[in-house]
Sequence to fold (187 residues):
Amino acid sequence: MITGTPDPGTSHPSAPGSDKDDQLLLERVLAPYKPHCRYLRHASLEPGETGGRPLTGSGEFTIPEPCYIDDTGHFNAVEFNICFNQLAYYTLAATIRDRIRGPFGEWTMNDYWARQLPHILILDMHSRFRRAMRGDDFRGEVQLVDARQRSGRSGPLLLIDTRCRFWDARGGRSEGKVRVAVTDPPT
Fold:
């Protein structure tokens, strides 16, 4: 389980985890997305506790209309994937920004920005839709469960196991497990 506390020697333009800092980071994380596909509206990071809850990124989402199909009337697998990506990108970036000790402890923000799109890959994704939910207003979280370095055919890999879930106020819910690989991790 990945848990951690911010490095006490870290300084930021605003306090780590503050609303202003989180919104600025979120805007940068979502910059590669088309404006109508930026579903994650607010996000925050909870460092986790040793032996307890893992490091967790939480967020509030809204999908005004699907970006690829007529409105299906429910949150679907494509939107699940996009929302996971956005919250996972934010969670990794916030972990690095806040200098959480662990697999990202030596990374700089420049290391992250250089890897966000070309080097962070989904290897395996399992999603389960427990009860239909709408995409107009919902919450979600991504937990970083485990991370380990490994040698790959093309060089070193950082493998990250995550759990995620999404839910709405009407009782809709979905959940999943996603394994992510970071190729060319900083050494």
In short: The first helix runs from residue 19 to 30. The chain has one domain: 19-183. Confidence is low (pLDDT under 50) at residues 7-17.
